[in-house]
Amino acid sequence: VPYLLGFLAVAVGIYIGVWLIVAGFMLYLLPALLIGAVVAVPAGAALAVVVAILTLTGLSAAPGVISPEDVVAASPRTSRGGVPKAFPRDRAWPSYFAGQATIDLAQVWRATSAVLTDGWRWIGRGVTGGWALAIPALVVASPLWICVSVGAYAAAGLILTAGVLIMLVLGVCWMAPTVLFRGLDRLIRKLRRASGSCPFCYHVTELPTFTCPGCGWRHRDVRPGRLGGLWRRCGCGTLLPTTVLRMAHKTQPQCPRCESLLRDGGAVVTDIRLPVFGPVSAGKTRLVYTGLLGLRDQVSAGGGVLDFVDEESQQTFEHAVALVGAGGDTVKTPADGLPHAITARVTLGRRRALLHMFDAAGEFYADRDDNSDLEFLDHAQGLVFVIDPFSIAWVRDQIGRSSGPDIVRMANPAHGDPEGIYHVTARRLRDYGVATRKRRLAVAVVKADPLDRLPLASPLDAGHVRQWLVDAGLDNLVLSAERDFGEVAYFVTASLAGTRATDARSPARPVAWLCAGAGLELWPGSGATADVPAQEEEESV
Ligand SMILES: Nc1nc2c(ncn2[C@@H]2O[C@H](COP(=O)(O)OP(=O)(O)OP(=O)(O)O)[C@@H](O)[C@H]2O)c(=O)[nH]1
Ligand SMILES: [Mg+2]
Ligand SMILES: [Zn+2]
Ligand SMILES: [Zn+2]
Questions:
Q1: Which of 73, 113, 136, 387 is buried deepest, with most CB atoms within 10 A?
Q2: Which atom of ligand 1 lies closest to the CA of 386?
């Protein structure tokens, strides 16, 4: 019995104890926790707001910043098609929307999580720190911290959602003018038929390189994009305009391949590239300079200006024109190096163009191996083929009979036959995949002035050059040229200093006709050919 009584007493004691704990929990702790939760959830939200402000202002847990160096380092190695890229991205500060925005928002979430995790770690230390700490940690701190976490995550989620929405709206506001600017820049240059052609390595590009005036870094792609919409900040801090058109106003464009400076206006104004080819001593150089001289006078008669933007072209032009003007001969073009372009700038009202003439020594056209470096042939809108009548066997035979060696000496006849030279060059163009059917070829029979003194069986007159060439036995050449090229026109020229460009024998005519084909009419009717169009003549034959 005493045992039974004792057992009952203990049971009642335990019952009362448990009841007291439950009652205490229900009466005091639960209401206290409920009140605590009402405070803890908003406190958690406030905590998230404070953390977001501290993070975004960089006062604490500042997000990593994408630097210009990161941009260079993280450049993709290949383009979308898998083609290896020649250059990394430019060293400039990326636009905020191109990556930094995401990093900042993610950091807000991460910083909030970090603060909450710190709290849990602290509570965890209490739980394992003995009874006196474990009970309040488990019973009071844990439930309260759960409430704080809920409030904080909810607020962080809201902040992120709002942030993403704001970034989307602002991003669209940034993207629209960026895309528009990029498109406009391209469109204007396309309409102008602008491209940057290198006078030295002959590379032709839509996208020249620009050097930052602040630090000398070469920016290879200044188009609006991830590195700036309307403006770009160079890695050195200098603010640069985007778009090729605006940047070209600030600094001179450069060749992306050899880094030489392009001619002033390169990549921005209409760009016309015309090589002159033919055998040694055919009269190429003389045709180029007297042709430019004729163009200059005719253009200025029409109220325009033809001038030179670079010292080198200006000086070579003046030198050659002075020689020819004084009745002398042009100097032989050196065959030991590739020629630099002779560039003339044409201004016709608001229209501006750069006209690049390429005049290599005749040796380069003599055989297939020598012309492999003549890349300017591939990028030309049209070509001038120079034929020296004194190198045609048919003419020579007649001179032999009429004894005109003085005239022949005076004419400095070309070495090599025109047909061979033509085929070597035409083959090079074919081998390099040039669409010659879309190009113009101006065939210029030069040295008409000394030829006049010879009593030829058939006179060489403007308008009948094609027929004359056929009579002279160059019918194969004529047929090949008309098969190879989209349009062929025939000219007879006397490369003299005083010839007016409208003159039937002006050396300016073939150049003007090719310019017209490239979209630049230098004067009204400059695109007309002196010769009867090939087809009509064929019908009449
Ligand atoms: N009278 C006269 N002489 C010309 C004419 N065209 C060329 N010549 C002369 O022919 C010679 C060769 O002319 P260039 O223009 O130097 O020949 P090229 O084709 O440039 O020759 P390379 O530089 O060796 O490839 C020079 O003595 C010129 O003065 C012309 O239309 N009339
Ligand atoms: Mg020459
Ligand atoms: Zn810079
Ligand atoms: Zn170059």
A1: 387
A2: 19
